[in-house]
Amino acid sequence: MADPADIMKTLLSSVAVILLVGGGVAFSQGQGPTPPPAPRSDSVEKDVAELRQKCDALAAELAETKTLLTKTITYLDAQSKSASAMAATLDESERAGFTFGINPESRQILLRGWREQLTALQQAVPVAPAPKPETAKTGDGKTRK
After folding, report:
1. How far apart are CA 14 and CA 23, in angstroms?
2. Residues 125-140 pLDDT 10s
3. How is the chain split into domains, by residue range?
4. Alpha-carbon distance 26 to 21, whole Å?
5. pLDDT at position 126, please?
6. Residue 78's closest CA among 36, 142, 129, 122?
7. S-S: 98 plus which of 3, 81, 93, 136, CB 3.0-4.6 Å?
8. Higher pLDDT, 36 or 9
9. SS3 breakdown of the chain: % helix, strand, coil, rounded to 5?
10. b or e along 24-55 (b: 16 or more beta carbons within 10 Å of the residue's beta carbon)?
11. With 90 as the cut, is the pLDDT of residue 33 above it?
């Protein structure tokens, strides 16, 4: 029979070899080549650039829309003022005798129609909203008025 000390040495040597081989295999599998981080950052930079372009395009479109809105409101305000002036002119014309003469009823109908149209032109005229105060960004990223 073999000496128990020799058996113990053989067993310990075998366990040590198994542990070393197993650890080496595990270590070598975990050390595979890692993908370079550059493609990820390139992708993010590309996305940021595309979003900036979209943001710039939307800002330009918004500026155009605001300009068109301002022009439209100015036009509608001028139409309303013109309608008011025309209503005053019709009143003055009527006082001066426009409705008297041949077929005065047709002239009264004409004046009534004009007045209805002029009243409609002066109702619900949109008004531009008051401009918002500009905000400035401070160095810490907060905004202030």
Report:
1. 14
2. 888 777 777 765 555 5
3. 47-126
4. 9
5. 82
6. 122
7. 93
8. 9
9. 70, 5, 25
10. eeeeeeeeeeeeeeeeeeeeeeeeeeeeeeee
11. no
